Fold GTP cyclohydrolase-2.
Amino acid sequence: MDSNIQFYEPEDAYGFLSNFYQSPINIDGQIWPTSEHYYQAQKFVDPNIYAKIQHCGTPDSAFALSRQYESEARRDWMEIRLDIMRFIVAEKFKQNPLLAFKLIETGNATLTEHSHKDAFWGDGEDGQGDNHLGKILMAVREQIQSTEPYNLIQFVDKAKLPTKWGTFEMHGFIERETGKEHLALVYGDISSVDAPLIRLHSECLTGDALFSTRCDCGFQLDRALQNITDEGAGVLLYLRQEGRGIGLLNKIRAYHLQDKGADTVEANEQLGFAADMRDYRFCRGILSYLGIDTVRLMTNNPRKVKALEQANIVIKDRVPLQEGINTNNQFYLETKAAKLGHLFDRQFIKQ
């Protein structure tokens, strides 16, 4: 990351830092297309001028209109303008999570509005300006860096992932608390869906990649991806939580105990672990990054429902995912129902 990031035009690489960048902001029920619209309107007490600026088609026209009425600006404007700018820039990032994550991704770089026109908000092009906008952005960055959901995950990169079900966009994240790497497989235009279909799928090497039939994980993964593509839009979070959080090698030890007669819960407990060690709090960070706050959740596990609800994710609907029962995993599934509360139809679990 560059130690000094300069921005100016909204179309540039760091254009999202500009007040001219299109990002809707709701203030007391009124929608402002950009922070520039809001800032320029606050110069006036005349409601007609205020409304004209609010409804300007572009931030450039909002800026120009405020100059046209400059003689009618409120008398205390020079004293309050910094506070107005601090407020609206903070709201811009608070209300647009993706922009907030992008702001955090600038790290500790110095942010500078590189403007040849403005030596108050920018650097005056020669670097001698006050750069007040850059300073406000850095203050907002410092504030949100330590708050949820922005401190939960770090976005790394994204790439296309062609599969037998269709082509997904694969997003990579690092869970800040543990350093674990997680994926979000995004299919279709999730912004066009009020409550996209999603699945939180914990990694299961034996089931997902080695085709084990002693669990239902691989079968569920296959069905979840098919359901998402059939739906036209959705997300599968692939979470590095092998063995309900105990890890791959401990999972092998647990399997050995199950071979001797223990059930899946007893095996974990005999190894000194809780029945389920997984923590889903960080998923809020991934979903926030993707702009998701309401979902239809594919799961049989009530803990996942509760975890997302506690993370302020609205569960519009729980979609059962009952796949892959066979003679090798029937006792395992019965144990999950009896001891972990998993929600299976009686007909499914007894077939």
